[in-house]
C-alpha cells in the first residue's frame, strides 16, 4: 500500500505539485490561426448537408476527430457538437472529415492525424418538421511543431424556414440566467490609461533566485542517508577503476553532468503542458482538492522521514538500469548510472524536491522557473562527484556516515509537517472553511517546533535512531535555534501588534483571518471593499481616489506586501485616510448567486464560465489590465481615470509610498 502511495506521490510532484503557483497569463497573446465558415446544401427532398470549412494558417495544423487510445497522448481531438430537437431534425450518420495526414509525432510518441491549410467537415440532417433549429458548437485546438494553443470554440446556428435548412444569423447560444453570454459585464471605460504605463507583464521573479533555492534543496539532499554514502564510493569507482587517471576524471565529471541533465529533463514535459493549457499551472495552486491531496502526500513524506516506512520506487527499475549501465559501458553506461542514482535516492530526494518546489508555488514563471529550480537541484547533487574526482584528497575531510544522517532525515520530516499544513491552509482560505484560522495555524507550527526541539535535545526518539549518546554541538545549536523560533511564534497566538510576524509574511493566514473578532475583514484592520461596484460607489460619494488591489487568499507575495509594506505607518495612514481600498480576491472559490453567474465571451470567441467570485475578478483583471498576476495595484479616480502607472510586488515601502503620493497629486490636479 505504501509503495502505491509513493508512486502516486511521485506522479503528482513531478507533474503538478511542483510550482503550480508559478502563475501564467490566462490569455494567450497569439490570435488563433484559423478561420471557420459554415454553409448548407440540399442533397435530396428533405436531406441537407451542413458543411464547415476550416482554413488554417501556414505552419499550423488542426487535429482530427479521431479519439486517442488509453495509452496514447496528444492534442485534444476536434469535436462537433450538434444541439437539436430529435422530433424536428434527424442526424444521419457521423460527421465526415477529409483523409488528412497521419504521421508519427516525436513529442507525443504516437501516430497523429491532422489537417493542414484547409479541412472540410460535413454532416447530413433530415428535416422532419418546420421551425426546427440547429446549434453547432465546435471545440478544437490549433497546433504547430512546438506547441498547441488552448482549446478554442466556434459556434454556428441553423434554422428551418419553408422546409429549407439554412444558416441563421450567427449569435451566441442563449439559454437561461447563468448560461447567457455577456461581453460587457466586466468592462471598464478607463480614462487616460495611455498617459501612464499599465504594467501588462508578469512580475519578473528572479530565475536566479529559484535556481539558488533549488541548489540549496540539492545541498540538503546530499546530507541524507540515500545520497551521502554514495559520494566516496562512486568517486572511487571512477578514479580507481578507470584505465588511466585522466579517463577516470572525465568519467566522474561526465557522471555529474548527466545527473544535472536528468533533473533538467524532468521539467521538459511542463513546457508542453504550458503550451497546451497556459492556465493549468496557475489554477492548480489554489485548487482546494489538490491542496488537500498535497497535504496528505506531504504528511506521508514526513512520516517516511521519521522512519516508520520507506517510500521507494520499484526495485526492478533501478535493477534494470544498473544492468543496462554495466552491459552498455562508455558514455551511455555512465548516463544509466546517473539515472540509477536518481531513482535509488528518491526516498530522500523526492520529498525534498517536492517540498522545495511545492513551497515556491506563489512565484510566477511556469515551466521556465521549474527548469531553473530543477537545474539548481541537479547541480548541487552533481557537483560533489565532479569536485571530489578533481580533488580526491578532499574525500578524507568528509565526515563518516553515521547516525547524524538519520538526524538530518528526521529534521526534514518536521519541516515536511510544517509545509503540509501550508497546503491545507491554502485550501481552507479559498474555500472559507474556517478550520485553520491564523492562530490555529501558528499553534500547530509551535507544536511541530516543540517536537523538533525535543528530538534535537534527545527527549523524543524515532525508529531508526541509534543508541542515546551525549548531545552533540550540532544538535544543541540547531535545538537552540528552533527553540528561539518557537518563542518568536508565540505572540502570533495573541491579537497584539506583535502578532504580525513579519519574518513569516505570506506563510500563515492573513491577520484578519483570525479566531478573534475584527472590526473589518481587510488587511491590517483597513476597511476593504471586496466588490468593485460597491467600492466605486463609496469613492464617488466621498470623492476619494481608489486603490484597486488584485490579491489572492493563497498569494504569498500579497501577504508580504500587506504585512511588510502596508504596515509601515506612513503607508498605512495614506491608504486608510486618503484612498478607498478595493481588494478583489481572484482565487476565491465561493459561488456567485445564480443571478450573478454568466458566461463571458472573450475577444477570440471562446467563452469562460463565471461561476465563482474568483472567476469574476480574475477575468475582470485580465480584461481591463491584460494582466493576471497578484499582487497587482491600480490607482483610479471615482471617474475611472488612471492616476499612475500600475505596479505589482514592490518590497520597498519608500517606493510604494512615493507611488501612492504621486497618485494623490495627480488626482488633485484632475479635480482643478
TrEMBL record:
Q: What is its main location?
A: membrane
Which keywords appear in this protein's UniProt record, sorted alphabetically? Answer: Cytochrome c-type biogenesis, Membrane, Signal, Transmembrane, Transmembrane helix
Q: Where in the cell is it found?
A: Membrane
Q: Name one GO molecular function term.
A: protein-disulfide reductase activity
Thiol:disulfide interchange protein DsbD N-terminal domain location is 82-158
Q: What are the recorded Gene Ontology BP terms?
A: cell redox homeostasis; cytochrome complex assembly
User: Which residues are listed as membrane-spanning?
Assistant: 210-235, 247-268, 288-309, 330-357, 369-391, 403-421, 441-462, 474-493
The reply to whether ATP-binding figures as a keyword in the UniProt entry is no
Pfam families in alphabetical order: DsbD_N (PF11412), DsbD_TM (PF02683), Thioredoxin_7 (PF13899)
The Cytochrome C biogenesis protein transmembrane domain, residue ranges: 210-425
What's the protein's topology in the membrane?
Multi-pass membrane protein
Protein's UniProt name: Cytochrome c-type biogenesis thiol:disulfide interchange protein DsbD-like protein
State the organism named in the record.
Psychroflexus gondwanensis ACAM 44
